[in-house]
Design goal:
The protein is an alpha/beta fold. The chain has one domain: Rossmann fold, CATH 3.40.50.2300. The radius of gyration is 14 Å and the shape is globular. The protein has helices at about 15-30, 55-65, 80-85, 90-100, 115-120, 130-159, and strands at about 5-10, 35-45, 85-90, 110. The model has no long low-confidence stretch (mean pLDDT about 95). Helix 1 links the parallel strand 1 (about 5-10) and strand 2 (about 35-45). It is built from six helices and four strands. The protein has a four-stranded parallel beta sheet.
Length: about 160
């Protein structure tokens, strides 16, 4: 069975998208479906390239049994549009930038995370300038969204 490749994208690839990558991978493993997916994350900007995730994202992930500490930030590359089946933006600003950079024949791979996962045109808020409660709220949103997304992808495979 062919694997599905998923790229999660936020602004700097240090808060939301590495957490999304970790949550999705963890849930896929729990479902016994880890081998069905190739998962990565990236940022619109290259400000943090090579750095690890924000310590607050690492902490909230660890509190839920997920280790994202070894991830490294990277910027979205032009070849990502062909390399990934799904490119999921954490917010509408990132979505607009991704859509503007995507080749016309691959633009259909780019989606707003919550719109695709849970059918709500809603951003995953950037917790960077807030406290720990913002990171926990983002974790909860990503956990629900990734669970829903995995179920949708399983349904699509079964059809």
């Amino acid at each position: 069975m062919a694997s599905t490749s998923v790229l999660f994208v936020c602004l700097g690839n240090i808060c939301r998208s590495p957490l999304a990558e970790g949550v999705f991978t963890h849930l896929a493993f729990q479902r016994g479906e880890a081998a069905l997916y190739r998962v990565d994350s990236a940022g619109i900007s290259g400000w943090h390239s090579g750095e690890g995730p924000d310590r607050r994202s690492v902490k909230v992930a660890a509190a839920h049994g997920i280790d994202i500490s070894r991830q490294q930030s990277r910027q979205v590359k032009p070849q990502d549009f062909a390399a990934f089946d799904l490119i999921l933006a954490m917010d509408r600003d990132n979505l607009a930038i991704l859509k503007s950079k995507a080749p016309a024949d691959l633009a259909a791979r780019v989606h707003l995370f919550n719109a695709l996962a849970v059918g709500q045109d809603m951003d995953v808020p950037d917790p960077y300038y807030g406290g720990p409660e913002g990171f926990e709220a983002v974790y909860s949103m990503l956990d629900s969204g990734c669970s829903a997304l995995l179920a949708k992808l399983a349904d699509a495979r079964a059809s």
